[in-house]
Write a structure and sequence with these properties.
This protein is globular. By secondary structure, it is an alpha+beta fold. The chain is built from one helix and three strands; from the N terminus they run E-E-E-H.
Length: 71
């Protein structure tokens, strides 16, 4: 198994998110309901669909890329 270089983590903390699903979420039937939070910035939002969840993640990652384009 190849190990990542010591200075590059394959799962950097600035790209970590916590997803909390509500009790009425039914992922098997496409009902994504809950809350997502970006770990390092604390930005958070509630979502009612997978599309909303992914849109939040994409927005946060795009903003990070603009702040540190050389990472």
């Amino acid at each position: 198994m190849n190990e990542p270089p010591a200075d590059k983590s394959p799962l950097p903390p600035h790209r970590a998110f916590v997803v909390q699903l509500s009790e009425n979420a039914d992922v098997e039937h496409g009902q994504w309901v809950g809350r997502v939070e970006h770990v390092t910035s604390g930005q958070a939002t509630r979502f009612q669909s997978l599309e909303e969840l992914l849109a939040f993640v994409a927005r946060v990652l795009a903003a990070l890329a603009k702040q540190a384009p050389n990472e």
